[in-house]
Amino acid sequence: MSYPSIITQEGAVERNVEPIIEALSPLLDGIDNGHIMELGSGSYKHIEAFAKKWENVRWWGTVRNEIEQEIAGDRLEKENVRLNNLHEPRIVDISNQRHWDEIYIAVRHGVAKQFSGFIMINLIHCCPIDYSEKVFKSLSPRSTLDPKILNPSKGWIVAYGPWLNDDGSYKSDQDEKFDREYIKSKSPLLGLRSIKSISDIASKWGFVEEQRKQLPKGNMFAVWRVKSP
């Protein structure tokens, strides 16, 4: 692995899960038997809450290696989490083409339905920028794959977390400290991004920025939607 994991700060899930659920509601309410995948599910606490909120949606969570898979699995086992609509942690390193191929195979053979959406919580700044592009490229409506992994007419990708301003400046002194001392200290490949920088990448692969929503603690919820023909 070419970059380290960024461990979610203690108590962060408990603080942000309800605001994220509220922001997701317009995208998810009304979806019946849809499939949603979260990239970088960590401890599985967020996706567990999502599965409990939207019981008519099938939730696919991912971790990037066997260590994270064991941590998430142990927590689910210890806390006796058994939800019919929540799949066990699946290993997906977003930089690994083989893992994207495996998702495609799951869709092609009916193990999973074509996905309605993908969710990334505190992931964009926790991976090198070219890996972020890998996400949009792999889910692009312009892909030659058939069927597409993501619904090519109305699929969406969500990212939540702290962001830079569009001009690359920090939104607050707190964000600058968090970026320099907590994220970039782990690896120079990491660091906060601007939503604009991600939208520029997304547009290359057939997505348009649809929404930005301010959430507590300076975090932003951003939505990219498949661009209409």
Automatic annotation (TrEMBL):
Domain of life: Eukaryota
Pfam families: DUF938 (PF06080)
InterPro entries in the cross-refs: DUF938, SAM-dependent_MTases_sf
Family: Belongs to the UPF0585 family.
Stated name of the protein: Methyltransferase domain-containing protein
